[in-house]
UniProtKB/TrEMBL annotation:
<keyword id="KW-0614">Plasmid</keyword>
<feature type="signal peptide">
    <location>
        <begin position="1"/>
        <end position="21"/>
    </location>
</feature>
<dbReference type="Pfam" id="PF00884">
    <property type="entry name" value="Sulfatase"/>
</dbReference>
<keyword id="KW-0378">Hydrolase</keyword>
<dbReference type="GO" id="GO:0046872">
    <property type="term" value="F:metal ion binding"/>
</dbReference>
<dbReference type="InterPro" id="IPR050738">
    <property type="entry name" value="Sulfatase"/>
</dbReference>
<keyword id="KW-0106">Calcium</keyword>
<protein>
    <submittedName>
        <fullName>Arylsulfatase</fullName>
    </submittedName>
</protein>
<dbReference type="InterPro" id="IPR000917">
    <property type="entry name" value="Sulfatase_N"/>
</dbReference>
<keyword id="KW-0732">Signal</keyword>
<dbReference type="InterPro" id="IPR024607">
    <property type="entry name" value="Sulfatase_CS"/>
</dbReference>
<comment type="similarity">
    <text>Belongs to the sulfatase family.</text>
</comment>
<dbReference type="GO" id="GO:0016787">
    <property type="term" value="F:hydrolase activity"/>
</dbReference>
<dbReference type="InterPro" id="IPR017850">
    <property type="entry name" value="Alkaline_phosphatase_core_sf"/>
</dbReference>
<feature type="domain" description="Sulfatase N-terminal">
    <location>
        <begin position="61"/>
        <end position="471"/>
    </location>
</feature>
<keyword id="KW-0479">Metal-binding</keyword>
Length: 773
């Protein structure tokens, strides 16, 4: 037999042996195949060991995990809600609904639990990532010891991609300087298209592909949810074109239904008058549908409206009109979101991929948001914790709700109605309205009773183990050199064949000092009394806790307190709570919402002097740029203007919903300070003289005065003072959380209307300095 043929046969046999050998997948990356060939002086006398990629196990499915934002248990028609969601309904008919599925109660912690399969404090995400603290449970980032399901699947032969909201990176890490370890591309996603932070404007977002901002015109007028679905479909097309047999893992997380509630005008028009009856009636109607459709068990009680949420009939006609419109917009946004989900599912069906795709859909990363308080808001961050917007201005914007000039969120009454029959809303880890969310799981051929409702307890920490189970993969012991903590969740895959409502289970909950503990059907609630729209509990930072106890196996809606009837069980549950809290790094408790917490996470870089070289610089307004609120500072800008009547932004911070801009308007230097869109809260300082063409300097002096006294603003150029004016306030929250500090342009939502696209300066900004007093 010729020597060359012998070598080819040997190589073929060796390849077959390696191909049939199942790799060890508990240590990731999977160790490479040892060299088993022979090496001689000539390649003609040598036998190689072929390099083999790590492949996913045979028959491993595609995986699509969808999680929306701030959606209550009772909003979607799939769970008896008043908003028609035909595409989610279709998925529910093909799969199985879970009516006892739980989240953590707020954004970042829920996303960490979902991605890692660990409890949120255990993964280092006990609270919002922007408000990280120096305690093990509150780092604000996902620890290396709790690798994400994306990382595990990527290292096991999956293609991985994320589309939408990423809220697990601290504010200082969101700039072009990184580090990028806590961006999606550092957490196992090979491709990312979406936004960083808690929310984004649906019309004028700041969107990233990988770690780079996309050009603002790329959206071509499309709203964010549409852009995400378009990009996901395009990615799947390309992934399957390149590797048709390679399974994908897609995490699809649009920012809706988080504020701002915004939707196309024609979608809002569909709901005209549909919510004029008010939240009390809508909640009761939803409750009756839920009972009739078997979403909730017979005997469930509709819990009463809490103190602090006004009765609908107590509102004035103008307030009713405003509140009804806010709900029309919210419903329109959910319908628009549902339409995009349908487009994705339809395309997977057309490609023949849906039949081998495990779909897990969660409506909400927590309950519906009540953070806008009893009145609602047209400016989310402006009103958060304050609620002192001018009532006449708010009501005057009723017809503009849902459009680009409002950053609205509905009154807490609607959040409560969208949680029927449960108690309270988002942030309430002590109440089911904050932590119980819709979940649907679908996998063609694996659902024993399509369209059914499963009452088995579930939690976000169960999603990662479920996906691993479907892919026939073990939970790894080591990932990229880091020994892994055990997963806290367990697979829900067996429930598709046989739903067991009373499986033993222990699961704690804690957000902002509000406490819950589920144990084998019983629920312990520790409540500090702070409404979700206030920064502190009524009695301050050390509140007296109110402890109650419920038998959820008989009391679906948490309606009847049994603490006095079950003192022994109450004591046992209290002891178990402390044990679980200690084990998961929950302590120390912090009962503050924004006050105090926000300061730590958003102070910006250290130092007093900052240099910026060149235009087109953008950094996160919160945490990434110098903190310019409630303090004095000086800006010096060197300019090179293309023409005598040049226009465009020099330095801009935030947006029209909260921000300021130093810019040129046909050569005239202008400083605009916008606490909101209310004309009474906008200060415009305009120079009568123009700056000349060519090289020129401009100086802004912002001299903060005593609290409540505002600031003095002085513009000057070449030593010559231009205008001087008084700004009524010196405290400003740049809004929203994804807005930027920009030089030579104004990305995202602009602070003001510019004469150039996106405020692009007609010229150059070679050097800018900022000096803090």
């Amino acid at each position: 037999m010729p020597l060359r043929l012998k070598r080819l046969l040997a190589l073929s046999a060796l390849t077959a042996v390696h191909a049939n050998a199942e790799p060890v997948r508990t240590i990731l990356p999977v160790p490479p195949v040892p060299f088993n060939g022979t090496i001689s002086e000539s390649v003609l006398d040598s036998t190689p060991t072929p390099a083999e990629p790590v492949l996913a196990p045979d028959n491993a499915p595609n995986v699509l995990v969808f999680m929306s934002d701030d959606t209550g248990f009772a909003m979607s028609s799939a769970f008896g809600g008043p908003v028609p969601t035909p595409n989610i309904d279709r998925l529910a008919a093909q799969g199985q609904r879970y009516n006892r599925f739980h989240t953590t109660g707020i954004c970042s912690p829920s996303r960490a639990a979902l991605l890692t399969g660990r409890n949120h404090h255990n993964a280092g995400n006990g609270y919002l990532s922007e408000m990280s603290a120096g305690f093990p449970g509150y780092a604000g980032t996902i620890s290396r010891e709790t690798a994400t399901i994306a990382q595990v699947l990527r290292l096991n032969g999956y293609s991985t991609a994320m589309f939408g909201k990423h809220h697990n990176t601290t504010s200082p890490e969101k700039s072009a300087a990184g580090p990028f370890d806590n961006w999606p591309t550092g957490l196992g996603f090979e491709y990312f298209y979406g936004f960083m932070g808690g929310d984004t404007d649906q019309f004028d977002p700041v969107i990233y592909r990988g770690t780079d901002m996309v050009e603002p015109d790329e959206g071509n007028g499309r709203m964010v949810d549409r852009r995400l679905a378009d990009d996901m479909i395009n990615w799947v097309h390309n992934q399957k074109a390149a590797a048709p047999d390679k399974p994908f893992f897609v995490y699809y997380a649009p920012g809706s239904m988080h504020a701002p509630h915004q939707a196309p005008t024609e979608y809002i028009a569909r709901f005209k008058g549909r919510f004029d009856k008010g939240w009390d009636v809508v909640r009761q109607e939803t409750f009756r549908r839920q009972l009739a459709e078997g979403i909730i068990p017979r005997g469930t009680r509709l819990t009463p409206r809490p103190e602090g949420i006004p009765a609908w009939d107590s509102l004035t006609p103008d307030k009713k009109a405003f509140a009804a419109r806010t709900m029309e917009v919210a419903a329109a946004q959910l319908v628009y979101q549902d339409e995009q989900i349908g487009r994705v599912l339809d395309e997977l069906q057309r490609m023949g991929e849906l039949k081998n795709t495990l779909v897990t859909l969660m409506q909400g990363d927590n309950g519906a948001s009540g953070e806008a308080g009893p009145d609602g808001t047209i400016n989310e961050l402006r009103s958060m914790g304050r609620h002192d917007e001018d009532e006449m201005w708010v009501l005057a914007n009723t017809d503009k709700l849902g459009g680009p000039m409002t950053y609205q969120s509905y009154p807490v009454g609607w959040a409560w109605a969208m949680s029927s029959p449960l108690r309270w809303t988002k942030q309430f880890a002590s109440m089911l309205g904050g932590i119980r969310n819709d979940m649907i799981m679908s996998w063609p051929g694996h659902v024993q009773h399509p369209g059914s409702v499963c009452a088995e307890f579930g939690h976000l920490v169960d999603i990662a183990p479920t996906v691993l189970d479907a892919a026939s993969l073990p939970a790894p012991e080591v990932v990229l050199g880091a020994r892994q903590k055990p997963m806290d969740g367990r697979t829900l895959l067996p429930s598709l064949a046989s739903c067991e409502a009373n499986r033993p289970r222990t699961q704690y909950f804690e957000i902002g000092g509000k406490i819950g503990l589920y144990h084998d059907g019983w629920f312990l609630s520790g409540e500090d009394g702070r409404p979700s729209w206030e920064n502190l509990p009524p009695t301050g930072e050390r509140p007296k806790m109110d402890w109650t106890l419920y038998d959820l196996s008989k009391d679906f809606s948490q309606s009847t307190d049994l603490s006095t009837k079950e003192p022994q069980r109450m004591a046992e549950m209290m002891a178990l709570w402390k044990q679980e809290a200690t084990r998961n790094n929950v302590f120390p408790l912090d009962h503050r919402f924004a006050t105090g917490r926000a300061i730590r996470g958003t102070v910006g870089p250290a130092g007093k002097h900052f240099d910026y070289w060149g235009k087109n610089i953008s950094m996160p307004a919160l945490g990434g740029s110098p903190c310019l609120a409630a303090r004095s500072f000086t800006i010096n800008a060197d300019l090179v203007l293309d023409r005598p009547a040049a226009s465009g932004a020099i330095v801009a911070w935030g947006s029209r919903f909260g921000g300021w801009s130093l810019y040129l308007d046909q050569g005239h230097p202008v400083f605009v300070f916008a606490r909101s869109t209310d004309p009474k809260e906008i200060t415009d300082v305009r120079a009568s003289a123009k700056l000349p063409q060519g090289k020129v300097s401009l100086r802004l002096r912002f001299a903060a005065q005593a609290p409540g006294k505002g600031a003095e603003v002085v513009l000057s150029s070449g030593g010559q003072e231009l205008p001087r004016a008084q700004v009524p306030v010196n405290v400003l929250m740049p809004s929203g959380t994804g807005e930027m500090f920009d030089i030579g342009r104004d990305l995202g939502v602009p602070v003001t209307d510019y004469r150039t696209p996106h405020g692009a300066i007609e010229g150059d900004v070679p050097h800018v300095t900022i000096d803090l007093d």
